Request: fold
Amino acid sequence: MADRTPLAVVTGASSGIGLELARRLVGDGYDLVVAAADAAIEAAATDLRRDADGTSVDPVRVDLATPEGVEALVEHLGERPVDALLVNAGVAVGGGAFVDTDLDRHLGLVALNVTGAVHLTHRVASRMAARGEGRILVTSSIAAKAPGPYLSTYSASKAFLYAFAQALRVELAERGVTVTALMPGPTDTPIWERADMEDTAIAGMAVADPASVARAGIDAMLAGKDHVVPGLVNKAAVASSNLLPDSAVARTQAPVTKPGSGG
Reply:
């Protein structure tokens, strides 16, 4: 890697934590491929280029909830080695109980947060393992430790991603590839509006700065840590969740995720 500029791939990079992950990496001298499904990825790339010092920022607009979108991103990468893969793209579905909300939205969440993440990680990680080097950061959440009523599929997807990252870490340890799970708490990003959760108490708790979350994630990835929970309050929440039965944790979550709880 010494004779070339390292390459990082960041998904869900048009806003929020993903954009800040990309900003930190371009500041660290990485070439970037940034991907998202929305047109805002072009504006994000323009913004990121202002922080670039001789490195490139290449936006790719793809829907990673589809196999075609994942393969289009992989094809775009070509044969160039990927030094860091940041699997960050994700959505949430709230606004009511599972049975009262649109099934297609939940299936779309699973397609992006779970299936798309597995698909892309397999395609890129297999090349890293063959090369004998690479770093992977998977954006999970403290929701991985707390089943969330009125946020059921999101919390489940984050639990999947956390377990997936921990398992891959063990499998890839002897192949020169590190895997780190980023587990933020409620963060000030557009996810709450998109999930129809603006009237919930948890949305009101979303005061964490996405830039500070991203810094914690990148630092942990570069240090080869297994996971990172940014913020003392979030660390305490995870510790508490680890001590209680899942059924009790789910009951404690309902008052902050239920529609109208923020009013």
Q: What stands out?
A: The two ends are 53 Å apart (CA to CA). Strands lie at 7-11, 31-36, 57-61, 84-87, 134-139, 177-182, 227-228. The longest strand covers residues 31-36.
